[in-house]
Design a protein that fits this description.
118 residues, mainly alpha, 2 domains, 5 helices, 2 strands, Phage protein
C-alpha cells in the first residue's frame, strides 16, 4: 500500500472515531445499536410519548384528522417532536461524509480505474 493511501486510511479512522456518535453499540454480538434522546425529566419524556401518539392518531385518521375528544389536551406539540428528531439527526456522521469526500474526491474514482487498467 502506498504511503498516501495509508495516510488516507489513518485519516478516515481518526474521523470515524471522532464523528460516528449517533449510534452506540449495545455491547453484545447482536449488531444492535442505540440512539439517545435527552429529556429533562419524566414529565418531558411523557410529553414526547403523548405527542408522538397523538401525531400517529392524526396520521392514521385521514378523514377526521383530529385527536379524539376523550383526550384532554388535544393539541400536538410539533416543536417537541421536531426537537427530538433534531437530537437523532446524525450531524457528526454527515461531517464524516464531508471529510471523506474531501479525502477521496469524486473524480479520484476515475484515476483509480485508470491506474488499474494500466
Amino acid at each position: 500500500m502506498e504511503k498516501d493511501e495509508i495516510e488516507k486510511l489513518e485519516t478516515i479512522k481518526r474521523l470515524a472515531s471522532n464523528c460516528l456518535r449517533t449510534l452506540k453499540p449495545v455491547g453484545d454480538k447482536s449488531g444492535i445499536h442505540t440512539a439517545e434522546i435527552r429529556v429533562y425529566d419524566y414529565y418531558e419524556l411523557a410529553a414526547v410519548i403523548r405527542n408522538l401518539l397523538k401525531l400517529c392518531i392524526v396520521a392514521l385518521d385521514e378523514d377526521g384528522a383530529e385527536v379524539p375528544n376523550t383526550i384532554k389536551n388535544q393539541s400536538i406539540d410539533v416543536g417537541l417532536i421536531l426537537g427530538i428528531a433534531l437530537q437523532l439527526f446524525p450531524i457528526d456522521e454527515f461531517e464524516l461524509l464531508n471529510e471523506i469526500s474531501i479525502v477521496f474526491p469524486a473524480d479520484s474514482k476515475n484515476e483509480d480505474e485508470n491506474n488499474i487498467n494500466k
